[in-house]
């Protein structure tokens, strides 16, 4: 798993109907995610793991500062049978991650949403996090979200959070399709 390895992370393997809905939603945007999808696709093809901006796809390069990943109790997206091989696939992937991004932005709208991705056991894994400047801000946000660890980007180290909050941002993968249909007024 590319993100913090704690007990409140689960894996979600999207079904073919999830992919179909994500493709339909991405197509309805008429290329609105095209730039981000191109940038993300080139990174995924280029190396084994990394961090990328959700909004524009560019890599998170300035990891030398005091930058932290605060994930929230959201499901990790795991792709085993459906690989990301085209811009259309990358656009659909961004749609699959959209509900989690919205959930994280509810508590930290000013912090950029980023994607942590990597290959493990032949599967492509994605997790979304808030990029926070400063350990104390990151710890505060993690406590509010009920997150057990935060990740220091400079050395990819997990740091335990001393207090666990309510865990408010649990996102059930089973309800993803229903959530997305309502969100995009398709039902």
Shape: globular
Which H/E pattern describes the elements? EHHEEEHEEHEEH
According to DSSP, the number of beta strands is: 8
Count of folded domains? 1
- Beta-strand percent range: 15-25%
Radius of gyration: 16 Å
Which class of secondary structure composition applies to the elements?
alpha+beta
Number of helical stretches of at least 4 residues: 5
Percentage of residues in helical conformation: 25-40%
The biggest beta sheet reads:
8 strands, mixed
- Measured between the Cα atoms of the first and last residue, the distance is 34 Å
| Average of the residue pLDDT scores | 80
Low-confidence stretches: 1-5
Describe this structure as you would to a colleague.
It is a single chain. The protein is an alpha+beta fold. It has one domain (11-183). Helices cover 34% and strands 22% of the residues. It contains five helices and eight strands; from the N terminus they run βααβββαββαββα. It has helices at residues 16-28, 34-46, 87-105, 135-145, 176-183, and strands spanning 11-12, 49-53, 67-70, 76-79, 113-120, 123-133, 149-152, 157-160. Strands 1, 2, 3, 4, 5, 6, 7 and 8 form an eight-stranded mixed sheet that branches. Strand 7 (149-152) and strand 8 form a beta hairpin. Helix 2 (34-46) packs across helix 3 (87-105). The chain is globular, with a radius of gyration of 16 Å. The N and C termini lie far apart (34 Å). 40% of the residues are buried. Mean pLDDT is 80; it is low at 1-5.
Give a brief outline of the structure.
This protein is α+β, with helices and mostly antiparallel strands and 187 residues long.
């Amino acid at each position: 798993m590319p993100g913090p390895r704690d007990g409140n992370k689960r894996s979600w393997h999207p079904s073919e109907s999830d992919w179909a809905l994500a493709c339909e939603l991405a197509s309805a945007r008429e290329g609105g995610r095209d730039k981000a999808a191109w940038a993300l696709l080139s990174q995924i093809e280029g190396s084994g793991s990394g961090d990328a901006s959700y909004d524009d796809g560019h890599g998170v390069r300035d990891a030398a500062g005091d930058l932290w990943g605060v994930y929230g109790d959201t499901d990790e997206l795991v792709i085993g049978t459906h690989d990301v091989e085209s811009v259309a696939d990358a656009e659909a992937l961004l749609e699959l991650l959209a509900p989690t991004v919205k959930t994280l932005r509810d508590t930290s709208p000013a912090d950029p949403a980023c994607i942590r991705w990597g290959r493990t056991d032949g599967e492509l894994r994605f997790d979304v996090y808030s990029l926070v400047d400063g350990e104390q801000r990151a710890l505060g946000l993690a406590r509010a979200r009920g997150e057990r660890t935060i990740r220091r980007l400079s050395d990819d180290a997990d740091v335990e959070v001393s207090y666990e909050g309510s865990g408010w941002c649990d996102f059930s993968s089973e309800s993803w399709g229903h959530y997305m249909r309502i969100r995009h007024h398709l039902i």
